[in-house]
Specification:
The complex is a heterotrimer of chains A (about 160), B (about 120) and C (about 90). Chain A is mostly helical. Helices cover about 60% and strands about 0% of the residues of chain A. Chain C starts with a helix and ends in a 6-residue tail after the last helix. Classes of the chains: A mainly alpha (about 160), B mainly alpha (about 120), C mainly alpha (about 90). The interface of A and B includes residues 34, 120, 149 and 153 of A.
Chain lengths: ~160, ~120, ~90
C-alpha cells in the first residue's frame, strides 16, 4: 500500500518515540506494577504498526527484511528456554542449590552477587531474581513476532501498477 | 437474580457469536463471530476471580497490612487465552487472503465444490 | 426451508437453553462459603513476597508458580508466526 499525506507523516515522527518509551517502561517494570512481557510487547508492536501505515509497506520492506525479524524472535525464545533449564544445571555445578525445572535460582544464595536482594519495601530492578530477565526475553519475542505478521500481510496485498504521488 | 448480571452478559456474547457462525455466508462475518465467542469466554474467566470487598493483587510498601485480594490464578489463565486468540486470528486471515486470490469470491457456499 | 436450515435452528435452540439455565443457576457473583474455599490462592497471596520477592502477584504466578503454561503459550505464538511467514513466501523464478 502507498503512504499517506505529509501531515500524517509529520505527526507520526513526533508520536513514535513517545509510544516506544511507554512500551519499554511497561516491560521493564513488570515485577512491580501491573504489566509485564506480553502487555508491553503489544504496546510497542502497535507503535511499529503506526509507522507501517504512515509510510507505506513498500518503503518499510526496503528498510527491514523479515529475516532480521525472525533472528530477533529466535533469540528471545532461546533465552526464555535457557533460563528455565539453568534451574536444573545449577544443581550439577554447585552442590548448595536445590533445583527443578523453572526454579528461581537467584534468590537466597551467596554465590552470584547481583539479583540477590529480597524483602518488603525495596523496589529496584534486581529485587525479584530471574523474573525481570524472563520479562525482557518474552517482550523481545512478542515485539518481533507481531511486527513480522503485520509487515508480511501488508506487503503481499499491494496493488501493482499504481503510481505513488 | 440481580447478582447474576455478569453471567447473563457472557451468555449474550456467546449466543450472538454463535448466530454469526451458523447463519451467515460471508467469510469475514464468520471470522468476526469466532472472535466474539473468544471475548465471551475471556470475560467468563475474569468474573470467576472476584471476592467481596477486595482489591487488585498488587502489594504496596512495607508499612501496609495485607487486605483482602482477588485471586491471581484466573488472571494468569486469561492472559494465555488472549494470546492464543490473536495467533488463531492471524492464521485465519492469511488463509482468507489466499482463498480470495484463487476463487475470486468470498461466498462460503461456492468454494470447494468440484466441477459437475 | 430446506432440511439443513431446520437442523441448524434446532441445534441453536438446544445450545441457547443449556447456556441460559447454566447462567441462572451458578453461585452469586463474588461469594465464597465453606465448600469452595480457595486454599491454593490463599497460600499464593500469603507467601509471594517472601518466596519470590516480586510486588506484582499476577507476574509471580505467570512466571514462577505456573511457568509451564507460559512455555506452552510461547510455543503457540512462535508456531503462528512461522505459519504466516511460510504462507507468503516469494519463490524466485
Amino acid at each position: 500500500m502507498s503512504g499517506m499525506s505529509r501531515i500524517v507523516k509529520t505527526v507520526t515522527n513526533v508520536a513514535f518515540p513517545i509510544v516506544m518509551i511507554y512500551g519499554l517502561y511497561v516491560i521493564a517494570h513488570g515485577h512491580l506494577t501491573p504489566g509485564g512481557g506480553f502487555q508491553g510487547g503489544a504496546v510497542v508492536a502497535s507503535g511499529l504498526a503506526m509507522l507501517l501505515v504512515a509510510y507505506g509497506s513498500v518503503w518499510t520492506m526496503g528498510k527491514v527484511k523479515e529475516k532480521q525479524l525472525s533472528v530477533l524472535e529466535s533469540i528471545g525464545a532461546l533465552g526464555f528456554i535457557s533460563l528455565a533449564f539453568l534451574g536444573i544445571l545449577m544443581v550439577l555445578l554447585y552442590s548448595s542449590f536445590q533445583g527443578n525445572f523453572f526454579n528461581n535460582f537467584l534468590i537466597n544464595q551467596d554465590i552470584i552477587p547481583i539479583f540477590n536482594e529480597i524483602g518488603r519495601g525495596l523496589a529496584n530492578i534486581n529485587t525479584a531474581g530471574v523474573i525481570p530477565l524472563m520479562n525482557f526475553a518474552v517482550g523481545l519475542k512478542v515485539i518481533a513476532g507481531l511486527f513480522a505478521i503485520v509487515l508480511v500481510m501488508a506487503y503481499a496485498t499491494r496493488l501493482k501498477g499504481v503510481k505513488q504521488k | 437474580m440481580i447478582y447474576n448480571i455478569p453471567y447473563i452478559a457472557v451468555v449474550a456474547l456467546i449466543l450472538i457469536g454463535l448466530y454469526a457462525v451458523i447463519f451467515k455466508r460471508n467469510l469475514i462475518k464468520i471470522v468476526i463471530g469466532i472472535t466474539l465467542i473468544e471475548s465471551g469466554v475471556n470475560l467468563f474467566l475474569i468474573t470467576l476471580a472476584f471476592r467481596e470487598d477486595s482489591i487488585a493483587p498488587i502489594y504496596r510498601g512495607s508499612g501496609s497490612r495485607i487486605m483482602d485480594m482477588s485471586l491471581p490464578v484466573p488472571h494468569a489463565l486469561t492472559l494465555t487465552s488472549i494470546v492464543i486468540g490473536v495467533a488463531v486470528l492471524a492464521l485465519m486471515l492469511s488463509l482468507i487472503i489466499h482463498l480470495y486470490k484463487h476463487y475470486n469470491t468470498l461466498d462460503a457456499s461456492k468454494i470447494g465444490r468440484e466441477e459437475e | 426451508m430446506s432440511k439443513r436450515d431446520f437442523a441448524a435452528v434446532i441445534f441453536f435452540a438446544i445450545v441457547a437453553v443449556f447456556l441460559v439455565f447454566g447462567a441462572l443457576l451458578t453461585h452469586p457473583f463474588g461469594e465464597f462459603n465453606q465448600e469452595n474455599d480457595p486454599e491454593m490462592d490463599q497460600y499464593i497471596i500469603d507467601n509471594t513476597q517472601n518466596e519470590t520477592g516480586a510486588d506484582n502477584g499476577v507476574t509471580a504466578v505467570v512466571f514462577d508458580y505456573r511457568g509451564f503454561d507460559t512455555l506452552g503459550e510461547a510455543t503457540v505464538l512462535f508456531t503462528a508466526v512461522a505459519g504466516v511467514i511460510i504462507l507468503f513466501r516469494r519463490l524466485k523464478k
